[in-house]
């Protein structure tokens, strides 16, 4: 039986006694917990820890909680992170400022720890439902895709195509969220068209991670489908850039430009015991 993964809570609070109490409390509740006392530290550490939710005090010794939230919203990995604000402020305008930044809840000090626990639980339940479908591409992700992969491994002749999009974070930083989202949607359309040309109606497409796509197909079709995806995607990369930037693309190091990596695997070469072994192999590929 696969052990259920702990949900992660990140606490940003400069009051050491309160931070220690919250950390101990949520650990007892079964969460994996991390903490930062300063806003600048929190931004980087949240990016590394990748929590399921952040509990964020507004009053911090350096940048305030609003600025922390703004920076999280600008991050590729953290732009949709649920945030609950902790504050001593009660004014309506302060609450509106938090809500405008996308905070999912707002609780004032002093607070009931049981109430905070229930709010965290409810936010995580809603977030779990919301993240079943990618908001940009409209493709399934998370548990929906995991279930499909588990079913795939029980089939005698499964095939899997993985399309990895690299460099989208750098592209987003330079050209903005709208342009980056357009890239993701265009990639989705081209993959879908490749499936129509080479695959079958039974094939399934979803996200195995934010920028990685997976096509579940059959063992006899996966290599051909992978080739078709690469033929469609590779020549199109340059056209995602503004016209004035296209001539400079090849001058950039690989780490700073958009790249597409396509691979395939099937039951003919692999025999995974479970979906965790499959994910381990994908991380190494």
CATH class division of the largest domain: Alpha Beta
Distance from N terminus to C terminus (CA atoms, Å) equals 26 Å
**CATH homologous superfamily assignment of the largest domain:** Reverse transcriptase/Diguanylate cyclase domain
CATH architecture tag of the largest domain: 2-Layer Sandwich
| Helix share bin | 40-55%
Average pLDDT for all residues: 87
Radius of gyration: 22 Å
Largest sheet: 5 strands, parallel
Count the domains.
2
Percent of residues in β-strands = 15-25%
CATH topology of the largest domain: Alpha-Beta Plaits
Report the structural category: alpha/beta
**Contiguous helical run count:** 10
Shape: globular
Q: Strand arrangement, largest sheet?
A: 2-1-3-4-5
Secondary-structure element order, N to C = EHEHEHEHEHHEHHEEHEH
Q: How many β-strand stretches?
A: 9
Helices and strands, with pairings:
Layout: E1 8-12, H1 16-28, E2 32-36, H2 39-49, E3 53-57, H3 65-74, E4 83-87, H4 92-100, E5 105-108, H5 113-130, H6 143-153, E6 158-166, H7 168-175, H8 177-198, E7 204-209, E8 212-218, H9 222-233, E9 259-266, H10 275-284
Parallel strand pairs: 1-2, 1-3, 3-4, 4-5
Antiparallel strand pairs: 6-8, 6-9, 7-8
Helix pairs in contact: 2-3, 7-8, 8-9
């Amino acid at each position: 039986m696969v052990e259920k993964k702990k949900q992660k809570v990140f606490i940003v609070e400069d009051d050491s006694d309160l931070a220690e109490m919250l950390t101990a409390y949520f650990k007892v509740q079964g969460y994996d917990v991390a903490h930062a006392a300063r806003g600048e530290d929190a931004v980087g550490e949240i990016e590394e820890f990748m929590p399921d939710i952040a509990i964020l005090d507004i009053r911090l010794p350096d940048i305030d909680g609003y600025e922390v939230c703004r920076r999280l919203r600008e991050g590729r990995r953290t732009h949709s992170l649920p945030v609950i604000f902790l504050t001593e402020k009660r004014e309506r305008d302060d609450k509106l400022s938090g809500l405008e930044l996308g905070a999912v809840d707002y609780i004032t000090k002093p607070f009931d720890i049981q109430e905070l626990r229930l709010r965290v639980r409810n936010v995580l339940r809603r977030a779990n439902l919301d993240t079943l479908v990618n908001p940009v591409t409209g493709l399934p992700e998370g548990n929906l895709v995991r279930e499909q992969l588990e079913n795939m491994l029980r089939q005698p002749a499964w095939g899997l195509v993985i399309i990895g999009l690299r460099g989208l974070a750098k592209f987003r930083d330079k050209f903005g969220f709208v342009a980056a989202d357009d890239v993701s949607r265009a990639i989705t359309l081209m993959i879908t068209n490749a499936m129509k040309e080479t695959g079958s109606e039974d094939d399934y497409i979803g996200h195995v991670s934010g920028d990685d796509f997976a096509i579940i197909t059959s063992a006899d079709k996966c290599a051909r489908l992978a080739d078709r995806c690469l033929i469609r995607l590779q020549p199109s990369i340059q056209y995602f850039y503004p016209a004035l930037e296209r001539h400079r693309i090849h001058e950039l190091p690989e780490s700073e430009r958009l790249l597409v990596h396509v691979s395939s695997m099937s039951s003919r070469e692999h025999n995974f015991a479970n979906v965790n072994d499959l994910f381990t192999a994908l991380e190494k590929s």
